[in-house]
Design goal:
Elements (H helix, E strand, L loop, with lengths): L3 E5 L3 H12 L3 E5 L2 H10 L1 E5 L4 E4 L5 E3 L10 E4 L6 H8 L8 E5 L5 H8 L4 E7 L3 E5 L2 E4 L5 E4 L8 H6 L4 E4 L3 H11 L1 H8 L3 H5 L2 H20 L12 H8 L3 H8 L12 H7 L10 H10 L5 H14 L8 H21 L1
Parallel strand pairs: 1-2, 1-6, 2-5, 3-10, 6-7, 7-8, 11-12
Antiparallel strand pairs: 3-4, 8-11, 9-10
Helix pairs in contact: 3-4, 7-9, 7-12, 7-14, 9-10, 9-13, 9-15, 13-14, 14-15
Length: about 350
């Protein structure tokens, strides 16, 4: 059987996943911006990865459209838009997608599947999470620069698609409850603003101890807020989240020895937030550090480190071109934390 798959919001992640499924025989249509679709029509797809994989998909082998007309016959819809566009994307499917169609949210952040489910009430809507990074190299070339799998809420509706994903080299990590995984991925994604503000590739940024200390400060604060909210993130790496906070601050040589395999990234990998800033687009900071700030408000625990990251990314979105050194960024975050502590004492 040939599955018909619509990828709605085909950016780097969506194109890579859709392209891999097409290589395994799925009938795939990418729905996205004209700029990327024109690039694919002109060049086809090249899908490479840090493990040495390098596949090609001919330009005429994959569908491309700017509105999800293909969803009317789709067996599976993958939503890969930025979190801010979730509601709008789901609304585009109303009146098009058939009742019972499986719709999977492959997005960062918490609660996107709930937004989709409230709009597409007749569909099987499942939460998903992409655990790897994909960089757009231009001319139809998309490169997976980090290791990882696709996580998805376990459901009988996934049974028929799982073999296709496995053949494509994208095995599904099926979880009865995906929420702990989403919170754990959010913890990892707190490096996105640090990386974007540094202006460096991920490997180079993570090699800097002060940048790692910035990430550790954001994660430690997030873990404290989660603990207050009685949220227990899953363990996605060999190093549990609470220990990773300590490991990140170690001297470079010791960090590499203890955790180098945990943060494998090739020289081409950058965060999606860095890509958004480079293209002048709004980022997902409100669904990453902003999510921690909002959760902190709910449990009466300030999150000044993540709040400062939200402010700095906001300034970058408005055109501030500054690239922060590790020392400078760490000083900003420590000052924010210190200022919040002093304010709490005065009150």
């Amino acid at each position: 059987m040939t599955f018909r798959v619509t990828v709605l919001g085909a950016g780097s992640i969506g194109i890579f996943v859709g392209g891999k499924l097409r290589l395994m025989g799925a009938d795939v249509t990418l729905v996205g911006r004209p700029r990327l679709l024109d690039e694919i029509r002109a060049n086809g797809l090249r899908l490479s990865d840090l493990d040495g994989g390098d596949d090609r998909v001919a330009a005429d082998a994959v569908g491309a459209e700017t509105t999800p007309e293909s969803a009317t016959t789709a067996d599976l819809v993958l939503i890969t838009v930025k979190s801010a566009q979730t509601g709008e994307a789901a609304e585009q499917l109303v009146g098009r997608v058939r009742p019972g169609t499986v719709v999977v949210s492959l997005q960062n952040g918490i609660g996107n599947d709930t937004v989709i489910r409230e709009i597409l009430t007749s569909c099987v809507v499942l939460a998903g999470m992409v655990m790897f990074n994909v960089a757009h190299q231009g001319d139809g070339h998309f490169h997976r620069g980090t290791a990882g799998v696709l996580a998805v809420t376990d459901d009988r509706a996934v049974d028929r698609f799982a073999p296709l994903f496995a053949r494509a080299g994208l095995p599904l990590d099926r979880r009865a409850d995906l929420l702990p995984v989403q919170w754990a991925k959010l913890l990892l994604n707190l490096n996105n603003p640090v990386n974007a503000l540094s202006g460096l590739p991920l490997r180079e940024q993570l090699a800097g101890r002060d940048y790692r200390r910035c990430l550790a400060a954001a994660q430690a604060e997030a873990l404290a807020v989660m603990r207050r909210a009685e949220i227990r993130p899953a363990q996605l790496t060999r190093v549990p989240p609470w220990l990773m906070v300590r490991v990140l601050g170690l001297p470079d040589a010791l960090f590499t020895r203890l955790a180098g395999a945990v943060v494998v990234a090739d020289p081409q990998a950058r965060s999606s937030m860095a890509d958004d800033l480079a293209l002048g687009r709004k980022t997902e900071i409100a669904w990453l550090s902003g999510e921690i700030v909002n959760l902190g408000r709910m449990v009466a625990m300030p999150a000044p480190v993540n709040a400062r990251l939200v402010e700095l990314i906001g300034a970058a979105e408005r055109g501030d071109p500054r690239r922060w050194s590790g020392v400078e960024l760490l000083a900003q975050l420590r000052a924010a934390k210190s200022g919040a502590a002093e304010s709490a004492q005065r009150s």
